[in-house]
Amino acid sequence: MSAAGKSGIIFMGTPEFAVPCLKMLISEGRARDLVITRPDSPKGRGYSLCPPPVKQYAVSKGLSVCQPDKIRTSEFTEIVKNLAPDFIITVAFGRILPPCILDIPRLGCINVHASLLPRHRGANPIVSCLACGDEVTGVTTMLMDEGMDTGDVLMTDEMRLDRDIDFDRLHDILAQKSAELLKQTMNRISGMNSREEIKRIAKPQPAEGATLTFPVRKEDARINWDQPASRIHDLVRGFCGCQSAWCMTSRGLMKIWKTRELKPGDEQPGPGVWEKMRPGQVARADDRGLLIRCGTGWLLAEEIQFASSKKMKTGDYLRGHPAKEDLFLGNEAK
User: Fold this and answer.
1) Cα distance between residue 82 and residue 137, in whole Å
2) What are the start-end ranges of the H helices in 50-164?
3) pTM for this structure?
């Protein structure tokens, strides 16, 4: 144990999602040894190097920061060994720790993951849970092993998802939940003096229900209008925090940032409209958005973006670029 009875901790994390956990550890007097994060990366049109959010926050609090290009080196292993930490805590670090690092902390390595494991193991759990239309998600603290998010579970915090929550909102909610759950986890294992003692309160992940997150690639975000409106809405919700869902139109590629499913009681197209239209065609284009026929159901596109415009409300775009009947050709557009 470090001074004042607090565990010596090395924190590893990179994006904004990890900052609330680091903030909590600092406020609890636990994160004093070292913060490890990814190297600065080029951002913006000028591709100037920008520090990761975790580095920015750590530096603002006077913490030492290490940004190794590689973590599977003898030099990096020695840095960690020399600190003799009780714990390594990782939150969205973006790298799998090798055994030579996992074996160093006296009490083990703890990871905070933004899903209810074993569902959505991997790098993109928030995108995946929304794009899959999950009704429930949450956060998990686990003891790390050599696998990808396969270690024994310490604690979980579950939440139900409404149909309108999108990536940005869920990201912020789960980031705060992660900090709260990590605090509860650290309090629960406080006073334990061996890896074996901590492992006794952890539970192995069940084999049933295990899934991997899918890669966030451009083609994965392409809309297939033959699918149900609910499925396309889920895709838009999941990808709106990164590259956005998209489709081809006669005006080129169109990104869709926000959609709404038509519910009973909403104004519907008139009788016979459905039968006359193909999936992907627009039944109505006005200040409310583009009302698009899907394989089943109607979807209202409320925020869109073309290459010639910035992201904006659909009504604002239409005022400068009036829609024509043959504008949107759905899956047949090139």
Assistant:
1) 38
2) 53-60, 74-83, 99-102, 125-131
3) 0.91
Separation between Cα atoms, residue 61 and residue 176, nearest integer Å? 19
State which fold the 219-332 domain adopts. Answer: Methionyl-tRNA Fmet Formyltransferase; Chain A, domain 2 (3.10.25)
What integer is the mean pLDDT of 98-117? 97
How far from chain centre, in Å, is Cα 197? 32
Asked if 256 and 248 touch (Cβ cutoff 8 Å), the reply is: no
What is the bridge-based pairing of β-strands 298-306 and 312-313? antiparallel
Q: Calculate mean pLDDT across residues 122-136.
A: 96
CATH class of the domain defined by 3-199:
alpha beta
User: Positive or negative, the Cα torsion across 110, 112, 115, 116?
Assistant: positive
Q: DSSP assignment of 176-190, as one string? A: HHHHHHHHHHHHHHT
Show the tokens assigned to 209.
Answer: 């229900």
Residue 7: is its pLDDT beyond 70?
no
* Higher pLDDT pick, 176 / 321: 176
The CA distance from 234 to 122, in Å, is 19
pLDDT in tens, 227-285: 999 999 999 999 998 889 999 988 889 999 999 998 887 888 888 888 888 898 888 88
User: SS in 3 state form for 42-73?
Assistant: EECCCCEEECCHHHHHHHHCCCCEECCCCCCC
Q: How far is CA 188 from the centre of its chain?
A: 27
What is the 3 state secondary structure string of 229-256?
HHHHHHHHHHHCCCCCEEEEECCEEEEE
In this prediction, residues 272-301 reach a mean pLDDT of 90
**How do 108-113 and 87-91 pair as beta strands?**
parallel
Domain ranges of the chain: 3-199, 219-332
The pLDDT of residue 171 is: 97
Beta bridge partners of 43: 48
User: pLDDT-based confidence at 43, cuts 50/70/90?
Assistant: confident
Q: Which two tokens stand for residue 142?
A: 């686990």
